[in-house]
Protein 1
Amino acid sequence: MPFYTYDDVLRISKLIQEIPCEVSEELRGWNWHTPPLLSAHTVQINVSDLSFSCQTGRLAFLRYKMNVKERDDERLHFGAFIHKVISMITSNVKSLLYNSTPQSGGELYEKMIKRMEDILAVQDLPAIYIKTFKVLWNRAALTYSSSLDKTLELSKYLSIDGLVSRVVPWICEFPLDGRLLGLNRAVRIDALVPPTLIIEFKTRKPNRSAEVALAAYALIFECLYKIPVNHAVILYIEFGADASSFKTYEKVLRIDDSLRLEFVEKRDLYASKASLDVDPGLSADCDPYCPYLSVCRNGG
Ligand code: SF4
């Protein structure tokens, strides 16, 4: 990890089978047009806003009503960079498999390292970002080259499409339209393994708000595709201070009634504060990663 192979997908499928999850019919995404899922507001909230905890909803008031720009935060920048690199690696390995058809894992590994060097040669990144980039890229090269060897052992006669989907089973930044649920039209899931395994990468400490945001993705998926999504995965990625290594923690979540209701409550709070002219005031306990911390707490 963090790069999932076919074996990881089988492992998670087995885990999910061992975690039963009952969901009430009215809380399925396809029932977006009736309460409690029906959104009473016209404003469309970003799913990423739900991943921050702001008890008064001031975050939504600042962003949508006052159009206040969020302040630069190096930790959020670094997290976004990791997301971008994982997505970039995924599309590059798929493109190498489609276009240069490596005949062995060793050949894919060499091509991936060469591609990494070519990309880095035209980037102007701080040293710590370059290190992070290389660490992730190396791990992906090892993972996918081994995955290619295993797939080739299975059969030499797979179609290229079948082979690529077996070596790299996920689609990064899978797009969804969240408008029917009062959410943004350009929602993107970090990774989707067809048909329904949703995976979100997180570089912040585990928290309930990340789980609420994950429920939002599951509900949108149900709303659009009419397929139940009872579980999803958060993959926490934690880099050491010098970025020379990282740890991953996987959490398989039930998207159960209580999480779905928390989503509804938070979406409605944020949407109502975004729709009114009244400042809801400061939250008693601000999210340490909130992008408006310097606005609310330092006089901005
Ligand atoms: S800093 Fe606190 S009050 Fe302001 S938006 Fe963030 S969580 Fe809400």
Protein 2
Amino acid sequence: MVVKRMLEQIDYFYSNRPCLGERVSGDIAIVEQQEQLLFVGIVDGLGHGKNANLVARTAKDYLQKTWDSDVCHTMLRLHDKLKGSLGAAVGLGVLNLETQQLSYTGVGNTVLKICRRQEQQNCTKRLYSTDGIVGSHIRHPVEQRLQLTKSDIILFYTDGIREHFSLEEYPLIFVDDTMKIAKKLIQLFGKKHDDATCIALKYQP
Ligand SMILES: [Mn+2]
């Protein structure tokens, strides 16, 4: 499944493919905008197939209706909502399009990575998730903030994509559009035996 939308200052695309042998994915991506705030969420329901897909869809429905500017608050409420389910790894970000500030919190093994173009040397930055399973057990969520720059490529991905890769392995990431980036990350670094989802986002103030 692929979705593309162009918001005013944001260009994004997400790609989601189920693990080998499954028809539905236990991963899900959520992108929502309200005025100057852009909400981005990625959910990896535990396991694969129908049961994981149900958890992911429940989380998406809930987040679409209830997200707010406080990512930790949103995470805690989602944790309550998913109690009694299989649980999930979840990354939540809110980008303020006016201040260019990104707030993030994550629980479990989803990844948020920023690829940044710089004069000296291009670099990647990673924001960290805490241990736990949303819906089962979590520590108090921690909010991290990052000031974005114009050329940044923001990637949210699940653990069906190899956690660490270097820009040398995909040098065209700064050239490709978000559709190509999201698909390419799955193609290059996706693990066959897990659901794989990537949201690629470019910020263009
Ligand atoms: Mn997974």
